[in-house]
Specification:
The complex is a heterodimer. By secondary structure, chain A is an all-beta fold. Chain A is 0% helix and 53% strand. Chain A has no helices and 12 strands. The model of chain A has no long low-confidence stretch (mean pLDDT 94). Chain B is an all-beta fold. The model of chain B has no long low-confidence stretch (mean pLDDT 94). The chains are: A mainly beta, B mainly beta. At the A-B interface, strand 5, strand 6, strand 10 and strand 11 of A face strand 5, strand 9 and strand 10 of B.
Chain lengths: 114, 113
């Protein structure tokens, strides 16, 4: 069975500084990996995904993530954080050949302060 | 396009009452999903429908039933609500491939007293 770990419940960063939200996964074979963001009282919005190829994936709103197979990680990054990036971020994994059934991490609350 | 819509937005039930959560998508997606979100637990899959006419259990199916009414609509029914089913429920849709992006509705906040 697949699993996703987001080791930090909350990440605090100053506006303008780089941010990293961590994600590690466990799955048989090569995974498909996703990042979603949730603003208060809203549904989840897709940010980016890794399917194959280049390990650095670029997504919406200036976010990017790096797939690291040896460390089984897929950390979300942004070079310069904005206060409007404050939200709940979820990492998710879908196994190849297993149908499109996502397993989510527990989420990381990102707080960007002035 | 409205994307994925869910009704109702909020609901309060008493223990033992029943209700149906409705979900519809206008993206012509084959697959639809029901998740629940609880604090500190992320989203957990309740049921999914890979294509019209099929449904299957997810991680936490007990106490729920689903109906894939047609390609657009996928409903979730609580036959006898329990306080443990207090949660926020999200519907999502996607194409069938494992790499396809799932698109989420705005959620239904359900409280069972």
């Amino acid at each position: 069975a697949q699993s996703v770990a987001q080791p930090e419940d909350q990440v605090n960063v100053a506006e303008g500084n780089p941010l990293t939200v961590k994600c590690t996964y466990s799955v048989s074979g090569n995974p498909y990996l996703f990042w979603y963001v949730q603003y208060p009282n809203r549904g989840l919005q897709f940010l980016l995904k890794y399917i194959t190829g280049d390990n650095l994936v670029k997504g919406s709103y200036g976010f990017e993530a790096e797939f690291n197979k040896s460390q089984t990680s897929f950390h979300l990054k942004k070079p310069s954080a904005l206060v409007s990036d404050s939200a709940l971020y979820f990492c998710a994994v879908s196994p190849r050949g297993g149908g499109n059934k996502l397993t989510f991490g527990t989420g990381t609350q990102l707080k960007v302060e002035l | 396009n409205a994307g994925v819509t869910q009704t109702p937005k909020f609901q309060v039930l008493k223990t033992g009452q029943s209700m149906t959560l409705q979900c519809a998508q206008d993206m012509n997606h084959n697959s639809m999903y029901w998740y629940r979100q609880d604090p500190g637990m992320g989203l957990r899959l309740i049921y999914y429908s890979a294509s019209e006419g099929t449904t299957d259990k997810g991680e936490v199916p007990n106490g729920y039933n689903v109906s894939r009414l047609n390609k657009r609509e996928f409903s979730l029914r609580l036959e006898s609500a329990a306080p443990s089913q207090t949660s926020v429920y999200f519907c999502a849709s996607s194409e069938k491939a494992s790499w396809d992006t799932q698109y989420f509705g705005p959620g239904t906040r359900l409280t069972v007293l």
